[in-house]
C-alpha cells in the first residue's frame, strides 16, 4: 500500500515538473515574440536551441503559426485580392484553430480574414515579415495568455510590418481593430 502511494505521488511530482518545464518554454516563446529582436532575456542566450517541445499545446501552437505563415506568404504571392481569395478557406480554418482556449466569434474571424486578404494581396513580404505577422496573429487569438503590454508590443510590431509593406492606413487600422476585437473575445 505504501509502495503504491509512493509511486503515485512520485508520478504526480514528475508530471508537475514536466508541466512546469513546458510552461516555462511557452512563456519564453511569448516573451521572444513580444520583445524587439525576438530574443528572450535569460541564461540561454541567442545561440542556445530550446529543447524539443513535449507539450501538445506547444506543438499545436507551433503548427498553427507555421500554417498562418504559409497562408500569409500565399496571400502576399497572389497577384491581386481576387486570386488571394483562394487562400480564404485555409486562412479561416487556421485563424479558427489558433485559439487554444476561448474561441473568437465566427464573424470576427471572417472579418479578420477578409481584411488580411485585402491588405496583404500582392505585397512582397519577406519571410521575417510573414513570421512576425503569424506569431502576432496567433498571440491575439489567445488574448487571455498575453498581457496588455505584450498586446501593445505585438500590435506595434504588426503595424510596423504593415507600414513596411505600404499597406494603406485604412486597411492597417481595420486589421488593428480586428486584432483588438479578437483579443477581447478570447480572454
- Write down how many β-strands occur, each being a DSSP E stretch of 2 or more residues: 0
Order of helices and strands: HHHHHHHH
Number of domains: 2
Beta fraction: under 5%
Shape estimate = globular
**Structural class per helix/strand content?**
mainly alpha
Ends distance = 44 Å
Rg over C-alpha atoms, rounded to the nearest angstrom? 19 Å
User: How many H/I helical runs?
Assistant: 8
Share of helical residues: over 70%
Mean of pLDDT: 80
Major pleated sheet = none
Question: Which stretches are poorly predicted, pLDDT < 50 over at least 5 residues?
Answer: 8-22
Question: What features would you highlight for this structure?
Answer:
8 helices; mainly alpha; 2 domains; globular; 187 residues; 71% helix
Question: Helices, strands, pairings?
Answer:
Blueprint: H1 2-34, H2 56-77, H3 81-84, H4 88-98, H5 106-120, H6 127-140, H7 148-164, H8 169-185
Helix pairs in contact: 1-7, 2-4, 2-6, 4-5, 5-8, 6-7, 7-8
Describe, in plain words, how this protein is organized in 3D.
The protein is mostly helical and 187 residues long. The protein has helices at residues 2-34, 56-77, 81-84, 88-98, 106-120, 127-140, 148-164, 169-185. It has 2 domains: 1-29; 55-185, no CATH class. The chain has 8 helices and no strands. α5 packs antiparallel against α8 (169-185). The longest helix is centred in the first third of the chain and has 33 residues, at 2-34.
Amino acid at each position: 500500500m505504501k509502495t503504491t502511494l509512493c509511486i503515485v505521488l512520485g508520478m504526480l511530482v514528475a508530471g508537475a515538473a514536466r508541466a512546469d518545464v513546458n510552461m516555462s518554454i511557452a512563456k519564453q516563446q511569448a516573451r521572444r515574440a513580444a520583445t524587439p529582436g525576438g530574443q528572450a532575456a535569460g541564461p540561454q542566450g541567442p545561440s542556445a536551441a530550446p529543447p524539443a517541445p513535449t507539450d501538445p499545446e506547444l506543438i499545436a501552437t507551433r503548427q498553427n503559426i507555421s500554417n498562418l505563415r504559409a497562408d500569409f506568404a500565399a496571400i502576399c504571392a497572389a497577384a491581386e485580392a481576387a486570386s488571394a481569395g483562394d487562400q480564404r478557406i485555409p486562412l479561416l480554418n487556421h485563424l479558427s484553430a489558433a485559439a487554444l482556449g476561448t474561441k473568437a466569434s465566427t464573424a470576427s474571424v471572417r472579418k479578420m480574414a477578409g481584411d488580411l486578404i485585402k491588405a496583404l494581396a500582392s505585397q512582397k513580404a519577406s519571410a521575417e515579415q510573414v513570421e512576425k505577422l503569424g506569431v502576432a496573429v496567433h498571440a491575439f487569438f489567445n488574448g487571455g495568455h498575453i498581457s496588455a503590454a505584450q498586446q501593445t508590443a505585438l500590435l506595434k510590431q504588426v503595424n510596423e510590418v504593415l507600414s513596411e509593406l505600404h499597406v494603406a492606413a485604412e486597411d492597417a487600422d481595420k486589421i488593428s481593430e480586428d486584432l483588438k476585437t479578437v483579443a477581447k473575445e478570447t480572454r
